[in-house]
Structure to design on (1191 residues):
């Protein structure tokens, strides 16, 4: 494959301005991530120490192979909810390496509200278990939770994708012969009791771990029986009397050592084989992405320059380079894995949609995973394009994309507006992982456009009522709408709501994709098959 | 991936990594890229680490590695931290002996206040036509022996209780 | 009295060493092996191996009836005892004499005489040879304490039946004399079942110098010069050399002639060693006579060119001495290092283990008398000495240099040995200057066991990279993850 010839001038003023703007954004982003991961009120840190428990990050360190990466999902989940008091939604999820194999990890963060389940906690855990199911990843649950957050129980408990879905997914994992292990390092009360009990293996840490359907206060209230935590659901009782627990561990270190030993004994099923090549670092420095991504979102940029800083050796075999040029399609390797890349270089026209559909079919035929780099404002509108059947061609692209059997991965690199989000494998389209860059936006349309549309509706309504509006009055209507919309389309809103799997520093994109692709190959790839293409 | 190495009685916790082209030994003091290649001699190797190249002779025993380097022989004891942790399971034992099934006490070997060693017989019970000797789960002091010879007991009755361990 | 078949009633390096000479002389050879004993070099040399039994291996090697029976059974007409075990046991010699088997060594009477320190000392003193001022309890138990006082301080209390440094006590002040005597007596009873004592003048910073002698049993005795054995730990020699750097030629002649004179006085037969205490002022006193081949005999062989075992066998076969005093040279310098399985940094605690790798040095002027084989096991059943490294050089400087190079290249892996410690002794300036005494190792223990340059990271790297399980665990991590390392998004 040929190397992309970069035309970027790293001494140019706009490059430097972009670089400075992105660096500023990233400073904030990394600070927020650091706070969400590590900064806790002293009383919460003290409480854990008093309970003789390790923090969730220390537990992960004991679990994971040293010197291996951890792809953490949705660190900033719930960052715009609950007044920001539930960092990470009180749970850590991600893909890590245990005894050389990829596992999905679900770990309660007891330093946040005692690890209580908030609505966003449940959403994050369900998403993690979906990732495990889709990619056939074994799961390690690290349980330490105060239980459902009762004041918000309606957002935790009843609906299809809420609390019950956690356990339903555990059952489905087991049914699919995907192993799970739970390390009980705190209380697993009520529903939480089913996390370890639905796992193939569980380990209870003596003194701190406990499993019961109702804790001592609830038992006292319900039946008047007075019973201590250890007698009711402690490690000794469960491992020697009830059989609810499999192993009891003397210490946290012992528990994770046992967990690692158990994981190492699970059958290793061969991964799906796809085309690979020897690794090659990108020829161009990934940090140059900071200067390539324009500080003004509306400024166009060449996605090939982005790809050159992510793919192996900056090498890219472009498909149909001269046709449908707003859609860049081609083959490249990421961490040695051959992938088909679709990247936006402008709005989607009929030809670019058809090109994308055709290219995705090629990739499916060859079992080549798909990676989408979104910078899309939508499909082209207007009489000419409707007459050419832009909706019909867009449908072909959706049919090819949605019907793809190969694993798909999405990076929202800049704009993700309207149906373009769908065509380019947005959240609803089962990307195995979907990450956003910090300056990216997601919404049915751009902020100005949306604000104008919404303001126009209101203005026309007022005009119909016979009111004449001054410029100032129009602005007064428009500005608040614009402000709110701007906030709603921000990456932080998306990630808070778990519309993505996390915000990425662009320079981390290559590793995040490498891990995602590698994890996806734990699941087989079916024979290609599609629905009906509207020709 | 982790090992505790002990040289002249001093322990160091390490883990070994490999960055795709070379091994890296990570110690509390830092990381050391290293390489070990065999030479023609029995047990002969060339070690490259910390900017030096050393010829050495090496033999791996079950618990220790012996290295002859620069005219001196060194013993490096290897401890798998997981195995060391596994040895701590014993700390998890209970203070109580609970009747595994209903039965009758045949004989009682100790009385409250006695010091007992782990594995020492405490009493003999008969259940389901089988005599079973129940032994101390750990070293300790007997706190209670609630049943006397000839007494019958029910499932889960406490047959012996040790005084709690002092931390 | 020709000898055609020789049984070596010993094991380890000395058995191998004796067997080599015996074979070279055309004898049929046999050696003992306890049923639980590892195969050693001797078993590879001997024509025949006789299995012996006993509750412990050492007990079997001390079992006189069994060994005499073994010699008769295989038709051996001579037994070489090596050193240790039954080599100085008069009853063993008597039993062999009775069975008509030649003992390669002196008569039982001479062994009995020299084996009793008190009698031996009296014998030597009576004949005008120098002995340190002393008092023997048995002479008159009632006046023992009084006589002890007249010896003068510092003095040394020794059990009459003792050896190996056990039960010896140094007394520097008159006030502690009586309590120390009682303590020594209790120790004597405990170690040797015999509470009799004697005292002698304690020589400060003494050197241990001994002389190799050889007699034909008819009164003809020659000496093979001296050996200096002052480098001792726990009263046991670990480095021996010849010539002694302490002696002037006149002193050398005097001490060697004294030794030969003592041997002549008992009409000594075979190889023997007369040991002296050599004081810093040049005075020397008879210490004891060992009626056998010594561990350190090879240094004598390397400077004289004689094969002492061959001489022993000649004498045992009635062929007499092959040499006259005039044609026994003392050429160059030789040093022996005893390679022991022990931890010099932990009070010389014996170590055990499997010999995982053995590569012994060789080269000009280097001799190894080894008792171990690659793959063998070192147990606590026997003495911790594994082998001897002996070097020869034109002079002492060359000998030390060769010894250092050889001991540094002595590779025994799997069991802790003293090779590094021996090298540290050789490297010590006082050793190089020949300025040592029997207390040298104790005085210099901190210097000699001081840790060298910190190379722990190199050692850990070697240990990690050769740990197949560890490397296997690391390499099972897919390459991509190894390259990513501890990346976090």
């Amino acid at each position: 494959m040929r190397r992309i010839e970069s035309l970027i001038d790293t001494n140019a003023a706009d490059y430097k301005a972009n670089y400075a703007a992105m660096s500023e954004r990233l400073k904030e982003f990394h600070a927020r991530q650091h706070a969400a991961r590590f900064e806790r009120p002293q009383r919460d840190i003290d409480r854990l120490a008093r309970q003789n428990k390790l923090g969730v990050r220390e537990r992960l360190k004991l679990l994971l192979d040293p010197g291996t990466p951890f792809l953490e999902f949705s660190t900033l989940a719930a960052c715009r909810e609950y007044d920001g008091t539930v960092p990470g939604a009180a749970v850590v999820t991600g893909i890590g390496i245990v005894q050389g194999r990829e596992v999905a990890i679900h770990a309660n963060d007891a330093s946040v509200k005692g690890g209580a389940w908030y609505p966003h906690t449940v959403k994050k855990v369900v998403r993690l278990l979906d990732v495990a199911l889709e990619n056939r990843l074994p799961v390690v649950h690290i349980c330490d939770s105060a239980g459902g957050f009762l004041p918000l129980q309606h957002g935790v408990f009843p609906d299809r994708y809420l609390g019950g879905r956690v356990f339903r997914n555990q059952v489905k994992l087991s049914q699919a012969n995907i192993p799970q292990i739970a390390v009980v390092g705190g209380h697993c009360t009520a529903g939480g009791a089913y996390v370890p009990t639905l796992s193939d293996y569980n380990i209870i840490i003596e003194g701190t771990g406990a499993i019961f359907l109702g804790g001592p206060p609830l038992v006292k209230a319900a039946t008047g029986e007075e019973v201590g935590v250890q007698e009711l659901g402690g490690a000794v009782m469960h491992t020697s009397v009830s059989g609810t627990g499999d192993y009891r561990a003397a210490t946290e270190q012992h528990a994770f050592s046992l967990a690692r030993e158990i994981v190492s004994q699970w059958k290793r099923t061969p991964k799906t084989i796809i085309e690979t090549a020897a690794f090659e670092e990108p020829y161009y420095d990934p940090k140059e992405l900071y200067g390539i991504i324009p500080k003004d979102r509306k400024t166009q940029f060449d996605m090939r320059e982005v790809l050159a800083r992510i793919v192996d050796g900056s090498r890219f075999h472009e498909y149909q380079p001269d046709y449908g040029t707003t859609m860049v399609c081609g083959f490249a390797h990421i961490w040695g894995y051959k992938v088909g890349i679709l990247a936006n270089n402008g709005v989607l026209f009929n030809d670019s949609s058809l090109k994308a559909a055709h290219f995705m079919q090629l990739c499916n035929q060859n079992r080549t995973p798909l990676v989408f780099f979104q910078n899309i404002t939508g499909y082209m509108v207007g009489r000419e394009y409707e007459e050419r059947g832009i909706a019909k061609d867009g449908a072909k692209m959706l049919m090819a994309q949605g019907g793809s059997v190969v694993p798909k991965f999405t990076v929202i690199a800049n704009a993700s507006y309207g149906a373009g989000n769908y065509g380019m494998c947005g959240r609803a389209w089962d990307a195995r992982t979907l990450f956003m860059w910090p300056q990216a936006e997601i919404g049915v349309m751009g902020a100005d456009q949306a604000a104008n549309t919404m303001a126009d509706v209101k203005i026309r309504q007022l005009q119909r009522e016979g009111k004449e509006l001054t410029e100032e009055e129009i602005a007064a209507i428009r500005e608040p709408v614009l402000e709110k919309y701007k906030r709603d389309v921000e990456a932080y809103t998306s990630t808070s709501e778990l519309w993505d799997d996390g915000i990425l520093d662009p320079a981390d994109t290559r590793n995040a994709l490498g891990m995602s692709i590698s994890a996806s190959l734990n699941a087989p790839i079916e024979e290609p098959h599609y629905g009906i293409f509207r020709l | 991936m982790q090992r505790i190495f002990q040289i002249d009685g001093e322990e160091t916790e390490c883990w070994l990594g490999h960055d795709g082209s070379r091994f890296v030994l990570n110690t509390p003091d830092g990381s050391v890229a290293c390489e070990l290649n065999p030479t023609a001699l029995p047990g002969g190797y060339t070690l490259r680490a910390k900017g030096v190249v050393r010829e050495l002779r090496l033999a791996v025993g079950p618990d220790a590695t012996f290295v002859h380097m620069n005219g001196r022989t060194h013993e490096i004891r290897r401890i798998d931290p997981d195995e060391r942790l596994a040895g701590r399971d014993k700390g998890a034992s209970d203070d109580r002996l609970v009747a595994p099934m209903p039965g009758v006490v045949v004989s009682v070997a100790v009385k409250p206040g006695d010091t007992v060693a782990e594995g020492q017989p405490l009493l003999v019970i008969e259940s389901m036509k089988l005599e079973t000797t129940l032994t101390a789960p750990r070293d300790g002091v007997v706190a209670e022996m609630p049943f006397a010879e000839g007494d019958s007991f029910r499932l889960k009755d406490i047959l012996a209780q040790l005084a709690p361990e002092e931390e | 009295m020709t000898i055609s078949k020789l049984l070596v009633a010993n094991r380890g390096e000395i058995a191998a060493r004796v067997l080599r000479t015996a074979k070279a002389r055309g004898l049929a050879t046999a050696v003992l092996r306890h049923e639980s004993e590892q195969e050693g070099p001797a078993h590879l040399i001997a024509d025949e191996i006789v299995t012996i039994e006993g509750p412990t291996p050492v007990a079997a090697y001390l079992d006189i009836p069994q060994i005499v029976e073994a010699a008769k059974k295989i038709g051996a007409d001579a037994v070489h005892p090596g050193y240790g075990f039954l080599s100085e046991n008069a009853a063993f010699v008597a039993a062999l004499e009775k069975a008509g088997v030649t003992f390669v060594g002196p008569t039982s009477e001479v062994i009995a005489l020299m084996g009793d320190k008190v009698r031996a000392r009296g014998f030597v003193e009576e004949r005008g040879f120098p002995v340190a001022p002393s008092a023997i309890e048995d002479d008159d138990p009632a006046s023992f304490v009084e006589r002890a006082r007249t010896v003068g301080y510092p003095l040394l209390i020794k059990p009459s039946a003792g050896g190996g440094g056990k039960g010896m006590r140094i007394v520097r002040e008159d006030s502690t004399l009586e309590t120390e005597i009682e303590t020594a007596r209790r120790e004597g009873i405990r170690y040797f079942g015999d509470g009799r004592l004697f005292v002698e003048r304690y020589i400060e910073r003494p050197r241990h110098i001994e002389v190799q002698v050889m007699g034909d049993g008819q009164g003809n005795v020659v000496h093979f010069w001296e050996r200096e054995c002052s480098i001792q730990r726990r009263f046991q020699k670990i480095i021996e050399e010849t010539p002694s750097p302490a002696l002037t030629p006149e002193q050398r002649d005097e001490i060697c002639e004294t030794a030969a004179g003592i041997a002549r006085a008992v009409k000594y037969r075979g190889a023997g060693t007369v040991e002296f205490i050599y004081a810093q002022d040049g005075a020397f006193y008879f210490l004891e006579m060992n009626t056998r081949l010594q561990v350190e005999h090879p240094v004598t062989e390397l400077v004289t060119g004689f094969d002492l075992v061959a001489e022993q066998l000649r004498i045992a076969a009635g062929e007499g001495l092959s040499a006259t005093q005039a044609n026994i040279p003392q050429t160059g310098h030789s040093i022996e290092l005893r390679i022991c399985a022990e931890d010099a940094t932990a009070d010389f605690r014996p170590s055990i283990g499997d010999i995982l790798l053995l590569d012994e040095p060789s080269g000009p002027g280097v001799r190894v008398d080894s008792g171990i084989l690659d793959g063998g096991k070192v147990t606590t059943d026997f003495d911790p000495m594994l082998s001897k490294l002996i070097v020869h050089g034109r002079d002492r400087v060359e000998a030390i240099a060769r010894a250092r190079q050889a001991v540094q290249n002595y590779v025994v892996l799997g069991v802790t040995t003293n090779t590094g410690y021996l090298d540290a002794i050789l490297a010590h300036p006082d050793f190089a200057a020949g300025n040592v005494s029997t207390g040298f190792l104790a005085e210099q223990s901190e210097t000699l066991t001081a840790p060298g340059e910190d190379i722990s990271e190199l050692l850990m790297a070697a240990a990690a990279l050769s740990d197949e399980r560890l490397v296997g665990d690391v390499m099972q991590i897919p390459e991509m993850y190894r390259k990513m390392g501890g990346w976090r998004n």
Summary: Residues 93-162 of chain B form a domain with the OB fold (Dihydrolipoamide Acetyltransferase, E2P) fold (CATH 2.40.50.100). Residues 102 and 154 of chain B are 4 Å apart (CA to CA). The helical segments of chain B are 81-86. The two ends of chain B are 32 Å apart (CA to CA).
